């Protein structure tokens, strides 16, 4: 049977947030829903809360769930779908115009305790723009769980977490269990495991529900968010769930991973950028800054070509076979 895979683009799914804004339109020319504060663009997702739909080529209109099921190894290569058959990665753009809630996501141990309502969530952030922004990441050294709980109850928890200034081009790892918040004035490319399980530690007085008991159950007081061993050269992060590399090229071409499923998040370019491959379907797919493209493992000779400078995040899945 003829290999019908090609580089896929998807319709973004926009999420209105009280802390959102319109910067994805300013930076990337996105046509955002009128009059809404858009905090998140889910650009590659396969969750009950949102499923990506292909926007290009003969598979246009097909969901990522359907694509994962129908293409199997042609799409994933040696990687595996989740137990429920869904695609094992979630990619977003975030636009924070106010500080997000201080929050935490469960690790495998917490998920086992909480049950089926929870799913592990490990993520990382690449900062596309910083207008004087800060993040909060990790509990300050020496703070005990009892002290942290009292700080939540007395609305003084900010004193218990690390505050870190960030600039465009910075990268941070947020393993499951680390308490964190994105500050105002930041636009972020987020790579994460496919989960929307979030427990708010505090919402800075905005009135949304907080989850004290679940947060205390999930927070790891020993985590710093340092990248684990394995990152080298262009590689920013290696986890059990995904690997993230930042790559760039001047005019010409750069090869994409052969025989592996890869997602490309284009960060910047000074000219036309395309994803090419050797197959008969959609052999050339144009890409603009802010775009995400899913490149199936079954393609031959996949590469990025550009007239001038381009930089992108390249996300690959672990090989299981």
Average of pLDDT: 95
CATH class of the largest domain: Mainly Beta
Number of domains: 2
Q: What is the H-and-E element order?
A: EHEEEHHEEHEEHEEEEEHEEEEEEEEE
Number of helices: 6
Question: CATH superfamily membership of the largest domain, which one?
Answer: Jelly Rolls
Overall geometric form: globular
What's the CATH architecture of the largest domain?
Sandwich
CATH topology of the largest domain: Jelly Rolls
Q: Give a count of the beta strands, DSSP E runs of length 2 or more.
A: 22
Radius of gyration using CA atoms only: 20 Å
Strands across the major sheet, in which order?
Answer: 1-2-5-12-7-10
Q: Beta-sheet strand percentage?
A: 35-45%
Structural class: mainly beta
Major β-sheet, in short? 6 strands, antiparallel
Distance between the termini: 22 Å
**Level of helix content?**
10-25%
Written description of the protein model:
The chain is mainly beta. Helices cover 13% and strands 35% of the residues. It folds into two domains: 13-218, Jelly Rolls (Sandwich), CATH 2.60.120.10; 235-316, Jelly Rolls, CATH 2.60.120.10. It has six helices and 22 strands. The strands form six sheets. It has a six-stranded antiparallel sheet with strand order 1-2-5-12-7-10, with no helix packed on it. Strand 14 and strand 15 (243-249) form a beta hairpin. It is globular and about 60 Å long. The mean pLDDT is 95.
């Amino acid at each position: 049977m003829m290999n019908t895979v090609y580089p896929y683009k998807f319709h973004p799914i926009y999420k209105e947030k009280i802390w959102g804004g319109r910067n994805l339109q300013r930076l990337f020319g996105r046509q955002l829903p009128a009059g809404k504060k858009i905090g998140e663009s889910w650009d590659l997702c396969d969750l009950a809360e949102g499923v990506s739909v292909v926007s290009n080529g003969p598979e246009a209109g097909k969901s990522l769930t359907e694509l994962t099921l129908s293409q199997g190894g042609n799409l994933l290569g040696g990687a595996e779908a989740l137990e429920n058959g869904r695609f094992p990665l979630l990619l977003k753009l975030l636009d924070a115009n106010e500080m997000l809630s201080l929050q935490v996501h469960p690790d495998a141990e917490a998920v086992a305790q909480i049950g089926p309502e929870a799913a592990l969530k490990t993520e990382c952030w690449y900062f596309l723009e910083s207008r004087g922004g800060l993040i909060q990441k990790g509990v300050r050294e020496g703070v005990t769980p009892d002290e942290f709980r009292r700080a939540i109850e007395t609305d003084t928890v900010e004193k218990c977490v690390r505050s870190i200034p960030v600039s465009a081009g910075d990268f941070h790892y947020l393993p499951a269990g680390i308490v964190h918040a994105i500050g105002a004035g930041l636009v972020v490319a987020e790579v994460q495991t496919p989960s929307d399980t979030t427990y708010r530690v505090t919402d800075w007085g905005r009135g949304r529900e907080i989850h004290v008991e679940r947060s205390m159950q999930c927070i790891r007081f020993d985590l710093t968010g340092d990248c684990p061993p394995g990152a080298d050269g262009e590689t920013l992060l290696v986890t059990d769930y995904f690997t993230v590399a930042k790559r760039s090229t001047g005019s010409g071409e750069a090869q994409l991973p052969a025989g592996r499923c890869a997602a490309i998040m284009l960060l910047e370019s000074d000219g036309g950028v395309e994803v090419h491959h050797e197959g008969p379907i959609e052999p050339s797919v144009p890409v603009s800054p802010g775009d995400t493209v899913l490149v199936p493992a079954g393609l031959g000779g996949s590469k990025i070509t550009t007239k001038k400078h381009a930089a992108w995040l390249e996300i690959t899945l672990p090989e299981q076979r």
